[in-house]
Design goal:
The complex is a heterodimer of chains A (about 600) and B (about 350).
Chain A: H1 5-35, H2 45-48, E1 50-59, H3 67-83, E2 90-94, E3 98-103, H4 109-116, E4 121-131, H5 183-191, E5 211-214, E6 220-224, E7 229-230, E8 234-243, E9 249-259, H6 261-274, E10 284-288, E11 291-294, E12 308-313, H7 315-328, E13 332-342, H8 344-373, H9 376-401, H10 408-437, H11 442-473, H12 479-510, H13 512-515, E14 531-532, E15 538-539, H14 550-558, H15 562-572
Antiparallel strand pairs in A: 1-3, 1-13, 2-3, 4-6, 4-7, 4-10, 5-6, 8-9, 9-12, 10-11, 14-15
Helix pairs in contact in A: 1-9, 1-12, 3-7, 8-9, 8-10, 9-10, 9-12, 10-11, 10-12, 11-12
Chain B: H1 2-13, H2 24-45, E1 49-50, H3 52-55, E2 57-63, H4 70-80, E3 87-91, E4 95-100, H5 105-119, E5 127-131, H6 133-162, H7 165-189, E6 192-193, H8 195-223, H9 234-244, H10 246-271, H11 275-306, H12 310-328
Helix pairs in contact in B: 1-9, 2-7, 2-11, 4-5, 6-7, 6-8, 7-8, 7-11, 8-9, 8-11, 9-11, 10-11
The chains are: A alpha+beta (about 600), B alpha+beta (about 350).
Subcellular location (chain B): Cell membrane
Main location (chain B): membrane
Pfam family, one (chain B): SecD_SecF_C
Chain lengths: ~600, ~350
């Protein structure tokens, strides 16, 4: 058998397909070996069980939230969830308005309360600070994955077993007065472990009370006085290169804060008091969501409302703090949009059922195509199998690289895609049949049918992909997982039909079974109405009115006898082509008014 | 298959032909009636049935085993929050679904406990959800936005691809027809509209156009430059294209429906209400309507839109004149059948970039 150009091309395409599959398997294997990925895609909550909370952040005066604030809100919630000791939580944004928190198992009420609390930025004076030494990770995880509720701390007692006094020895004169530190508070401070679950008041510490807390990294713990200035006085905060007195850049970065009039006044008073005080009373803490994001020492009396914080910032850390101050300045509240708690049994059940539905669907499609296309149906089966393998590998890869989780909606998308993928084969096969009906040999029918089919396939898949892409971009909730699998399978469809189905058919067309048009090949020209005239040559049936092989069919039409023509006219509503150059074209899009 | 292939052959050659484009008035009337029913039906029924996601509330699901007794659930809820009338239904074969008004976290916990005791199951096998009232509105807003963006995009892309805005318009008309009718089926039957159903609904968009593009591609081929000869009027050329793709349309809709039907079956009868059923139900209706509308709405509408163009009118008149002449002609020799080399005029309009 001579290897002609189409055959060479076919083998090349198949080789490419193999390269793609091997590369995907390789990438997955790399992930498994190096990165602890798995050979199966991660599952979303509705298939795995767990709790999903959708939160919508709202500003207190009913405004909507900007993108930066949303990012800020996500990081706040992430800290809260981490602080409550829930492992494997996943926090993502959805659209540009919602935050989705996914937790394994069933979180306790305290965790839920904490997640929903609104966050605010506060200025509090530092009364006491100490570097922490021991660090433990808060909370403990029981075997079943639920977080244990920490027992309430036992009331502090002194050496004699008497409860420690909780009332200040003298009435504090202001927020910065050390008189706030009662024996009980001192004891709480001494026993306070950063990152533990004791700060249940996180997010909303009482503003008129002193606060025991840490910085987010648990490096230092503090006793802070009551709130002295509300965070909302900050109108702007930016990261800037630090300059010395003479205006020369020092190479370090600073955070420049701008306050409104009220803030300027309050801050000026605070700075007068703090400047020159003894350590740690000269420090001032910015508290966001109950933890200290910065506690700088007052280096001057600042009366213009434009303090800048310096101290070994890189550009990145300065920008981080500036963002926290700027976007944390507005108190963000969270309203729970929906809270789903799905038991693991239900999840497993749904996954099983989804897979069963998919298999049944696949089986039905295979049966139907065998019925319709005989052995060509086997090509469909093989193509669908390749598509399924590609889809599985891609989703597993996405799961590892992008943290994609397969949801029930995603599974549905995959199942729905079976039909759309199979349709490409149908379009292609029907095109080949059309070419055969026009009297082409099987070899050239496959090639010219392909040229026409691929255009249709690309156009229709393009529309489909566009739908998936738009759904994905504008998605809310579950739609995203569905849109993703639908879009993915559309691309896979094109890859499979170009790199597998077409090459295979090209090669099959060379086999004796097909080139002689076996009855079961699904491409039997005799059954397709082409008139057989010996090996691979067909005379066009007289009533064919195709102009694709224009010469031949018009010729044939002209050679009809009148009787034939009449008969054909009756059948087809007129025939007997005469070649006048058509003076119309569908590309003519002149608008009529 | 033999007969089906034969059916395909006959459609292809024009030996057997369904006059679809010619009877367009009939299809328009049918479409008008269906759209009217789809709009009036839900109104008569008192609007759509929205799922809990749109009204807000709490929902519990208990896998109750062999004997899902609904009364027990009502009592369990009543013991925690008296005076509520929970909606209880059995989904699938063994699951009880209870919907109540919005409960506090504390009440939710208590109801879970009560249900676990009542049905004698582990508390962590109970699924509970709480949905705020604005959740459904959010989804609806996004869905409508997606719908509008998609239609605008699709219209532009198709107009560019087919090089005529008329094809684009015809396809969009068919698409809207599909959407209205699918929504109508939901409204008339009282199927619950849930976010999952909306996903299905939005997917119909893609499918409906997908199907239309395949058929329009063939129409374009049959009416392209050098294809439109004096044998057929424009409408007849369109009709031939529809007939030639009929086998493919039947095969495609069957193949697309099979998996969807299997999800629908599993989702509705085995799992009960949920994502699977809701998506597949909308899709099932949409695919049926979408396939129908491509053939009976999009193609005739397109022919209708083009038929009044002067060139097409001229061409059609020529065809009719020829037909009349042919009918009266006693003898017509095929004298010019000598030259084999006839300018083919190029095959179907090449797709330019």
């Amino acid at each position: 058998m001579a290897t002609t150009a189409p055959v060479k091309k076919a083998w090349r395409s198949l080789a490419w397909l193999l390269v793609i599959i091997v590369a995907l398997i390789g990438a997955n294997a790399f992930g498994v070996i190096k990165d602890g990925a798995t050979w199966t895609p991660q599952l979303a909550l509705d298939l795995e069980g767990g709790t999903q909370i959708v939160l919508a952040p709202t500003l207190e005066d009913g405004q909507s939230v900007s993108g930066e604030q949303l990012t800020q809100a996500v990081s706040i919630i992430r800290q809260r969830v981490d602080a409550s000791g829930v492992s494997e939580a996943e926090i993502t944004t959805q659209g540009n308005q919602n935050i989705v928190v996914s937790l394994p198992g069933t979180p306790d009420d305290a965790t839920l309360q904490r997640i929903q609390a609104s966050s605010q930025l506060q200025f509090r004076p530092v009364l006491l600070a100490s570097q922490t030494t021991s660090q433990t990770v808060g909370g403990e995880v029981n075997a079943d994955g639920t977080t244990a509720t920490p027992s309430a701390p036992a009331p502090a007692v002194d050496a004699n077993g008497q409860p420690l006094s909780d009332t200040p020895s003298s009435q504090p004169t202001g927020p910065g007065d050390v008189a706030w530190i009662t024996p009980a508070l001192q004891d709480k401070f001494d026993n306070y472990v950063c990152g533990s679950d004791q700060s249940a008041e996180a997010g909303n510490p009482a503003s008129k009370e002193p606060l025991v807390t840490c910085d987010p990294y648990g490096l230092e713990k503090y006793i802070l006085g009551p709130v002295e200035i509300a965070g909302s006085v900050i109108t702007d905060a930016t990261a800037q290169p630090e300059t010395s007195q003479s205006g020369v850049s020092t190479g370090a970065w600073a955070v420049q804060i701008i306050m409104n009039n009220e803030g300027t006044k309050q801050f000026s008073e605070v700075s007068k008091r703090l400047y020159g005080s003894a350590e740690p009373l000269n420090r001032f803490a910015f508290v966001l969501d109950g933890s200290v994001i910065s506690a700088p020492t007052m280096q001057a009396q600042i009366t213009d409302g434009r303090p800048s914080i310096t101290g070994g910032f890189t550009q990145e850390s300065a920008k981080g703090l500036a963002d926290q101050l700027k976007f944390g300045a507005l108190p963000i509240g969270f309203t729970v949009q929906s809270l789903d708690n799905i038991s693991a049994t239900l999840g497993t059940n749904q996954l099983q059922m989804g897979l069963i539905a998919g298999l049944i669907g696949l089986l039905l499609v295979v049966l139907y195509s065998l019925l319709q296309y005989r052995l060509l149906g086997l090509v469909t089966v093989a193509s669908l199998t390749i598509a399924a393998v590609l889809a599985y590998l891609l989703i597993t890869l996405l799961s590892w690289r992008e943290g994609y989780r397969l949801s029930l909606a995603g599974v549905t998308g995959l199942i729905v895609a079976i039909g759309i993928t199979a349709d490409s084969f149908i379009v292609y096969f029907e095109r080949i049949r059309d070419e055969l009906r026009d009297g082409r040999g099987i070899d050239s029918a496959v090639q010219s049918g392909w040229k026409r089919a691929i255009r249709t396939i690309l156009a229709s898949d393009g529309v489909n992909f566009m739908a998936a892409a738009i759904l994905f971009v504008l998605a809310v909730g579950n739609v995203r997982g569905f849109a993703l699998t639908l879009g993915l399978t559309t691309i896979i469809d094109i890859v499979v039909v170009a790199l597998f189905t077409h090459p295979i058919l090209t090669l099959l067309a060379r086999t004796k079974f097909y080139s002689e048009g076996h009855r079961f090949s699904g491409l039997d020209p005799r059954q397709l109405g082409a008139v057989y005239r010996g090996r691979a040559a067909f005379r066009t049936p007289t009533d064919s009115v195709k102009a694709k092989n224009a010469g031949a069919s018009r010729e044939a039409a002209k050679r009809q006898t009148i009787a034939e023509r009449k008969a054909a006219e009756l059948a087809a509503g007129g025939d007997g082509a005469k070649t006048t150059p058509a003076d119309t074209s569908s590309t003519n899009t002149r608008k009529e008014s | 298959m033999g007969t089906f292939a034969q059916f395909g052959n006959d459609l292809y050659t024009g030996k057997r032909s369904y006059n679809i484009v010619g009877r367009r008035k009939l299809w328009y009337i049918i479409a008008a009636i269906m759209i009217l029913v789809s709009i009036l039906g839900p109104i008569v029924r008192g609007g759509f049935t929205f799922g809990i996601e749109f009204s807000g509330g709490s929902e519990f699901q208990v896998v109750a085993g062999k004997d899902p007794d609904q009364q027990k659930a009502i009592e369990a809820v009543d013991s925690v929050v008296p005076g509520q009338t929970p909606r209880v239904m059995v989904v699938g074969s063994d699951t009880v679904r209870i919907q109540t008004e919005q409960l506090t976290d504390e009440e939710t916990g208590q109801v879970r406990k009560a249900l676990a005791e009542t049905y004698n199951v582990e508390e962590d096998t109970i699924t509970s959800s709480f949905i705020g009232a604005s959740w459904g509105q959010d989804i609806t807003r996004q869905a409508i936005l997606a719908l509008i963006v998609f239609i605008v995009f699709a219209a532009v892309v198709m107009a560019l691809y087919f090089r005529t805005w008329k094809m684009s318009l015809a396809a969009i008309i068919a698409l809207l027809h599909d959407l209205v009718i699918t929504a109508g089926v939901y409204g008339i039957t009282g199927f619950e509209i849930t976010p999952a159903a909306m996903i299905g609904f939005l997917t119909i968009l893609g499918y409906s156009l997908y199907d239309t593009v395949v058929v329009f591609d063939k129409i374009r081929e049959n009416t392209g430059r050098g294809e439109l000869n004096d044998a057929r009027t424009f409408g007849q050329s369109v009709n031939l294209a529809v007939n030639q793709t009929l086998v493919r349309s039947i095969n495609t809709s069957v193949v697309a429906l099979l998996p969807v039907a299997s999800i629908l079956f599993i989702g509705a009868f085995i799992l009960g209400a949920g994502t699977l059923r809701d998506i597949s139900l909308a899709l099932f209706i949409g695919i049926l309507v979408g396939t129908y509308s491509t053939i009976f709405i999009a193609a005739p509408t397109y022919a209708h839109l083009r038929e009044n163009e002067p060139e097409i009118v001229k061409h059609d008149n020529r065809v009719r004149a020829r037909e009349a002449a042919n009918a009266t002609e006693v003898e017509k020799s095929d004298a010019d059948a000598t030259s084999k080399k006839l300018a083919a005029g190029g095959s179907a309009a090449e797709i330019g970039s």
